[in-house]
Fold this protein.
Amino acid sequence: MGWARAAAALKDIISPTVPILSTTKGIHVETEKLMYDVIPEALGRAQPAAFLSGPSFAKEMMQNFPTTVVIASDNADVAKEIQHKLSQTTFRVYTTNDVIGLEIGSARRSAHGREQRRMRLTNETTMAGCSLA
């Protein structure tokens, strides 16, 4: 778990009052834990945290296409602070306190997207090898 090792190595320089914004999606395969659980375990303490989920695509964001994301935190003040700092004209940030729902939904959406890409590639490969004669 790369993030947990990095956080543990940096825990002495990360202030316990500074919120961490996690953009990591998914459920850790070995531990089946969400980042909501990983962050305090890695730091060995409670830490203000929030979790960001899209859908958002870097290319479209860089072209100033309208983008909407959600910040989840069990601390409404943390969520509002991050919302205020990130919101822009074309980047709208909503907040929720449903951290677990956001993380599981993001993990599911990521897995579904990977499966859709795999199926599309499989179909393209199959079609490329077929003759229509």
The longest strand covers residues 67-72. The chain has one domain: 2-127.
